[in-house]
Amino acid sequence: MTMPIKFDTLEYTRNLMEAGISATDAEAHANALSLAMAEATVSPSELLLLRTDVLARIDMLRLSVDAKIEALCVSVETRIDSLQSEINAKINSVQAEINLRINSLQAEIDLRINSLQAEIDLRINSLKAEINAKINSLQVQTNSLQVQINSLREEISSLRAGMNAKLIPLYLMAGLSLVLHAITLAKLFS
Can you give the residue ranges of every domain in the chain? Predict the structure, then answer.
């Protein structure tokens, strides 16, 4: 369905001869170019047919690509869902294992705390008993000292009373001596 392009071989030959090419060579060039142009041209109907064919192939490729993309999306979504389920199962398993370890450690810590608490309580009670015994001992010593202090007070009171009894005549004599000296001095200076 080729349609030759209108080509004036005579005019072309004349132009070549004016340029200095021989008539034989100019005619050979014109014929060769005419044949080449006649075979190389495409008619508008052929272009339309080619365009329709290319568009149809593009549409088929588009449908094929769309179908493949859709299938790939479904496949990817399925794999994602599968991986998500698998990951969730692993997470749940790890979480259960961690919870089990935490509970085990909590029980062990509670046991240690209770043991330490019992040991501390025992030590505190032992110290309380020891302190109470020392306090009682100090109380007995304090009571004994109080008795000794009371005894010493009574002894001091008794000694004071004895001293006062001995010092009263001395006080009287000293007082009488002072009075006599005062009288003597008064008579001397009067």
Answer: 1-41, 42-143+150-188
